[in-house]
Amino acid sequence: MSGSVARWVVLALLSSVARADDAVWADARVAMYAQYFQQALIPGSPGSVTRIEPAFPVSLSGFVRFGAVDLPGAPDSVSGELALWGRAGPLDGIQGDGDVTAAWAQYRRGVFRVKLGRQLTLPGSRRYVRFDGATLGVSVGLLDVDVYGGWVALPRWNQPRGASLLGFVGDGLRDPLLLEAQNRAGQVTAGGRVAFRLPKESRLGFSFHQQHDLSGVASRVVAADLTTQPLRWLGAGARMTFDLQALDVSEAAVWLDVTKIPRVPLAIDYSFQRPSLLLPHTSVLAAFGGASWHELGAEATVRALESLEVRGRGAAQLFEGDQPGGRAQVQVRWWPGLERRLLVLAEVARVLVPPSGYVQLRAGARYRASETITTSLDGAVFLYDAPVRGVASSMTAVASVEWAARPWLRVLVSSTVMRTPFAAFEAQGLARLVVELDPRSAAGAP
Amino acid sequence: MKRKAVLIGVAVTLLGGACARGLLTHFPHRVHLATLECGAAGQPKCLSCLSCHQSSPGGHESWSAPTAQRCAGCHENDKQIFQHSVRPALARLPAGKKIVFAHEPHLKMGELKGQCVKCHGGAVGVEGGAPLFPPMDTCLSCHHHQAQFEANQCTGCHVAGDLRGLEPRSFLAHDTGWIRRHGPMARSAPEKCATCHAQTSCDSCHDATRPLGPAQRNPEQLERTFVHRFDFLSRHPLEARSQPGQCATCHAKTECDACHITRGVSGAVNGGQSPHPLGWASGLGAAGNGHGLAARRDIGACASCHDQGPATNCVRCHKVGALGGSPHPVGWRSTDPLGSPQCAVCHGGAL
Fold it and tell me: What is the model's pTM?
C-alpha cells in the first residue's frame, strides 16, 4: 500500500515540475499532389450527373512542428505547430484555394499550460472541433483541468449549396468561387474537461461543450468517459454524452480489449446513438426523428505466424422499429520472409442494410522491389444487393510506384481505373512528392 | 460456386505459403552456439554471442553486426559466407530499437548466465517463436516505470528522436479495435498522443477541407483503414444508413445537400430527380407514405437534403395545425423555448 502511495506521489511530482532540459526538436513534411482526372459517364436522367472535362488540379500540403524550446527561466516550455494546404488548377481558368488547419503555440510552465491559435479540441460530442482561440490547462497531482473557447473554424467544413463536388476525386475539383461567404461572428464554442488519473492506467473525465451557430445554441452537452486497464491483458472503456437541450442520452459506448492470448487480441464493443440528437439543435429537423441505433460488435486478430495475420470483425446493428442489419469483414495479410518485402492482402466483407447491402471482394499486394522502389496493386469488386442507378457492381483497381530517392524525399505515381454506377469508365492519375525533415515522424501521413 | 472455389484457392495458397516456416536470419546461430563441437584439441574454440557481436563503451548502438573479417577467422570463403548470412534489412538497427541500455551488467546477472538469447530468442528461433528484439514487456518484467509512464517521460530508456516513429506494442497498442477507440483515447489522454503525434496526424484522416481524401493521397497504404476507399460514391447511402453517426465525425450535413443539388439528386433542382419512390410522402403509391418511418429512424439522412430552416418542406405539413400532425417522437423533451428560431418555425407562426 505504501509503495503504491509513494508511486503516485512520485507521479504527482513528475507531472508537476518542468521537465529536464531536452534538446529543441522539429519535424516537418511537405507533400505535393498533381492529379489527372477524367470520367466517362453512363447516360442517365437529365441532370443526374454532371459532365466534366479532364481536370488537372495541383495541391500542396505541409506542416512543421517544434518542441522543447527554452524561454529565459523556463526550459522546454514552448512547442507549436503550423499546418496548411493550398490548391491551384485549371477548371474554368486558373483557380486557387487553401486553408490553415493548425497554427498554435503552447507555453507550459510548472503545472500551468496555455495554448493559443487554431487548434483542435475533443468535446463531449463525437465530432472534434477546430477553433481559433485559447485553451488553458492545469495539472495538479492526479487532476487535469482544461478549459477552451474561441471561434469555430466551421465555415470551411460546411460545403454550401452550389459548390462543385465531382466524382471520386471530387474534393480536388472543388470550385472555391462557389463557396458562400460565411459569417463567423456567431460561430463560437466553449467548454472544459476535468480528468482524474487513477491507478490501473485509469482515467475518469467529465466534460462540457457548447457550440453556437448563427441561429443560436447548436449543441450543449455534458459527457463522462472512463478508460482503465484493470489487468495487464484487459483494457476497458466507456463514455456517454448527455444532451442538455433534449435532456436525453445522445451517444454511449462500452468496450473491452482482451489480450490474454497475445497472438489473438480480441475487442468487443457496444455503441448507442440517437441520430436526431447529432444534428445541431438549430435545425428544425432535430425535433423530428427519435429512433435509437444500437451496434454490438467484436473483432479479433489472429497472428498464427509472424508472417500471417487474419483480422476479422462482425457487428449486428439495430435501428429500433426496423429490421436488423450487420457488417462482417475478414482480411488476411501475409508478409512472406523476414524482410517483409512483399505484402499480400485479401479481404471479404458483407454489409447488410435492409433492404439493401453489398459484398466486397478485395485483393492487393505491395512489393519492395529494392531499397528505394516500392510498387503496389490494389483492386476491389463491390456487388450490390439492390442495383445503384440500374448497375449492380463497381470495379476499381489502383496501381502505384514509389521511389524513395533520399531518406527525406519520396516520389509516387499512381493510376486508378474504375467502372461504377456513376461512370462507365473513370481514370485518375496522381503524382505525389513528399519531402520530410524527419522521416521517422508519426506526425501524420502525407 | 466458381467464386467460392477461387476464394478457397486463394486462402489455401496464402495459408500454405505462410506455414512454410523460415529461419529468422540466414545465419545458423544455433550451429555456431550450441551444436558445433568445440574446445577440444583439433576443434575450433567455443563461441559465444560476444565472439562476433562486439561491444564497446557507448551504449546500445555500439553493439555491432559482425564483419566479413570475423568469419575469416574460421572460414576460408569468408566473403561468400558473409554475403549469404547478412540480411540488409537487419544491418541497421530498426527505428525505435535504440534504447538507453547497458548490456554488460545484464549479461553478468545470474538469471541470464551471459546468454543473449534470453532476450534475443529470435536469433536462434524460427518464425512464430520469440522475437529478435524483446518487446517492452520484457524490460518491465523487472523494471517498474509506472510513474514515468504516466508522466510521459519516455526518454529515460528511449532515444528522443526515435519516439516520434515508434508504434506502441506493450501499452496503448494500436491493434485490434484501436481504430474504433482512438477518438475516446485521444480525449482521455491527449498528452500521450502528443508524445508521438501532431495535430496533423488527426487531420491526415479527419480534415474534410483538404482537397484529396486520405485514400486517394495514399494509394500504397493497403493495410490502413480508409472509410472512402474505392468507389465510395456508389455505396455512401448504404454506409450512412449502416452507421448513422459516422459521417458526422467529419462532415456537416450541408455538405450532403450541396453535392445532391449539384448532381440533381434533389427535388429542389429544376429537372432534378427525387430519390424517393412514388407515394413516399403522400401514401398514394407503392411506397405507402414511408417517409415517416424513415425520418423516425434517421432524421440525419433527411437533413442531408431537407434542412433549409423555415423553407424546409417537412414544415409545410408538420407545423402546428397542419395535416401532417406532430413530428415529435413519444417522450419528446426540449429545454428550448417555443420562441427560439427552430421552434418558432412550427409553433410561432413564423411561416
Answer: 0.79
Interface touch A157/B345, C-beta < 8 Å: no
Of B14, B217, B303, the CB nearest to A346: B14
Least CB-CB distance to A276: which of B89, B162, B299?
B299
pLDDT, tens only, B187-198: 888 888 887 788
Tell me if residue A338 falls in helix, strand or coil. Answer: coil
From the list B153, B185, B202, which residue is nearest A120 (CB)?
Answer: B202
Identify which of B58-72, B258-272, B287-301 has the greatest average pLDDT: B287-301
- What one-letter code names the amino acid at B180? R
Distance from B270 to chain A by nearest Cα, in Å?
9
Average pLDDT, chain B: 74
The stretch B109-137 carries a mean pLDDT of 71
Q: Which residues does chain A have within 8 Å of residue B233's beta carbon, measured at their own beta carbons?
A: 167-168, 170, 420, 422
> Which cell numbers hold the place of A118?
487554431
Tell me the average pLDDT across B15-29. 53
Of B62, B35, B225, B176, which Cα lies nearest the Cα of A255? B176
Touching check for B286 and chain A: CB below 8 Å? no
Q: Give residue A103's pLDDT.
A: 94
